[in-house]
């Protein structure tokens, strides 16, 4: 059995365009070396990115030395639970993909708070035009789940 998500199912991939995750495996897997708990699969917004920049966590600027491409609104990214919770408290939380959010996020953020920002991720971005989240189709949501092979 693989890693579990916050709703009790197997952890599903968060994003591959760009490739996310502390281990850059597309999943919000965590381990003892992930001190920041990069466990929340967020669909970032301009407001969330600006908030993160203001608190000293610039997610928009590419950092190739960390295999970090820089994010734009609509990208899915495994963010730290503490920074996401801070954004929530400041009214700037990003959307959350619950099936792709690691159960360890619940050590920091209550499930009810995550559910307030939950979003379903469709197979194609066309169905999200009303939300202006046009970059949501990077991951094939087939039967693939996130494992623990490298952690």
Explain what the structure shows.
By secondary structure, the protein is an alpha+beta fold. The chain has a single domain (1-28, 38-123), classed as Phenylalanyl-tRNA Synthetase, Chain B, domain 1 (2-Layer Sandwich), CATH 3.30.56.110. 16% of the residues lie in helices and 7% in strands. The chain contains three helices and three strands; from the N terminus they run βαβαβα. It has helices at residues 46-54, 81-89, 111-116; strands at 40-43, 76-79, 95-96. It has a three-stranded antiparallel sheet. It is globular and about 35 Å long. The two termini are 14 Å apart. Residues 123-143 have low confidence and may be disordered.
List the helices and strands and how they pair.
Elements: E1 40-43, H1 46-54, E2 76-79, H2 81-89, E3 95-96, H3 111-116
Keyword list:
3 helices, 151 residues, single chain, alpha+beta, Phenylalanyl-tRNA Synthetase, Chain B, domain 1, 3 strands, 7% strand
Order of adjacent strands in the largest pleated sheet: 2-1-3
Structural class: alpha+beta
Q: DSSP helix count?
A: 3
How large a portion of the residues is in β-strands, by DSSP E?
A: 5-15%
Through-space gap between termini? 14 Å
State the CATH topology: Phenylalanyl-tRNA Synthetase, Chain B, domain 1
CATH superfamily caption? Protein of unknown function DUF2237
Q: What is this entry, summarized?
A:
This protein is an alpha+beta fold and 151 residues long. Helices cover 16% and strands 7% of the residues. The chain has one domain (1-28, 38-123): 2-Layer Sandwich (Phenylalanyl-tRNA Synthetase, Chain B, domain 1), CATH 3.30.56.
């Amino acid at each position: 059995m693989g890693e579990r998500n916050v709703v009790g199912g197997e952890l599903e991939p968060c994003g591959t365009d760009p490739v996310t995750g502390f281990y850059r495996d597309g999943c919000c897997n965590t381990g003892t070396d992930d001190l920041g708990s990069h466990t929340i699969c967020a669909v970032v917004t301009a407001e969330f990115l600006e908030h993160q920049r203001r608190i000293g966590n610039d997610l928009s600027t590419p950092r190739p030395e960390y295999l970090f491409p820089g994010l734009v609104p609509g990208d899915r990214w495994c963010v730290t639970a503490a920074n996401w919770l801070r954004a929530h408290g400041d009214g700037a939380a990003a959307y959350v993909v619950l099936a792709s959010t690691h159960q360890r996020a619940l050590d920091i953020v209550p499930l009810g708070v995550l559910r307030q920002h939950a979003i379903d991720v469709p197979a194609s971005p066309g169905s999200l035009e009303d939300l202006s989240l046009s970059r949501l189709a990077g991951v094939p949501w087939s039967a693939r789940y996130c494992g623990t092979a490298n952690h």
